[in-house]
Amino acid sequence: MLLSMINPVAIALGPIKVHWYGIILGLGALAGLYLAIREGRRFKMAPEFFMDLLLIGVPSAIVAARIYYVAFQWESYRDNIWSVFKIWEGGIAIYGALIGAIVSAFLYVRAKGYSFWRIADICAPSLLVGQMIGRWGNFVNQEAYGGPVSESFLRDTLHLPGFIVDMMYIKGAYHHPTFLYESLWNLAGLLVLLVLRRRPFLRAGELFMTYFIWYSLGRFFIEGLRTDSLVFNGPAWLENFLAVLWLPMDAVFEPGEMTGGNIRISQLLALLIIVAAAILIVVRRRKGWAKERYSDPILGRGDTAAGGAEAAKEGTLAAKEPEQPKQSND
Q: Which residue ranges have biased composition labelled Low complexity (predicted)?
């Protein structure tokens, strides 16, 4: 019996409606900001730096995520162009969001005179926190779910609370709560990153790359369960290759139904990201581009952003000359 259906509209004031989707995304962004500010203090960085980064990164991420999604679903929007702007109804792609956030962050960080890799490392756990919380926006909207399952699987096998089970009853059937799978995977990844960043062997940029590897590994398998994947028609050899990689899951779960193609874009992209990130870590070490360690001081242009003057008095960080930053991106 369905007792816990959630209204996607949190607050309605006449024609103005505030959706849970936006509130949850906002909470995810604020939680990520909190983590970044806390870690930034270890490196004598001003909280305002990360606040400005958030103000720049979030709008860029949302716009890019929507563009990415609409580009692959154009047939659904071409006859009603105004629906492109109804982002509160869902329909954003996380990889598009990452592209927008990274590009805007790179430009901002470079303008401030910091190494992009150092700031990206600090923000890597924040990205996982934002995604972990943000997936619950999909839950409220009843989207990004997997293929059909039995009610007993949700209640008795997974032991999920009733409000989650009820919300997974969509279009006459219960479905895999893939939003929950990904949220829990991101929680585990957050713990991994928080431990890893205190290890002395970690070099600049490698925590950021580890984030991509961890997230993409989970996304590859979770995406295979979904029924709303962005797809395209690819060659048979690629379809077979991805099917072989899916085999560890095939013994337990059936893949979600695909319509309109035979290759899930997010699965393919996840695989490419894992390979690219691993190669980048190896190449940067072998080429000597990763000499800095995660624990080394972060030096930037200007004492206001880096807290250089204050740190110099404490003997923990040498202030930098304003006109000549001591380091730049690799």
A: 304-319
Instruction: Supply the pTM of this predicted model.
Output: 0.86
Instruction: Say if residue 135 carries a ligand binding annotation.
Output: yes
State the average pLDDT for the chain: 88
- Evaluate if residue 319 carries a pLDDT over 90: no
Instruction: With H, G, I as helix, E, B as strand and everything else as coil, classify residue 208.
Output: helix
Phi then psi for residue 18, to 5 deg, are -105, 120
Neighbours of 100 (CB within 10 A): 22
List, in sequence order, the alpha helices (H) in the chain: 20-42, 47-72, 74-77, 94-111, 116-141, 151-152, 162-167, 178-196, 206-223, 236-250, 265-286, 303-306, 308-314
DSSP line for 250-280 = HTT-PPPP--S-SEEHHHHHHHHHHHHHHHH
What is the tens place of the pLDDT at every residue in 98-107? Answer: 999 999 999 9
Q: Is 164 exposed, middle or buried (0-12, 13-18, 19+ CB in 10 A)?
A: middle
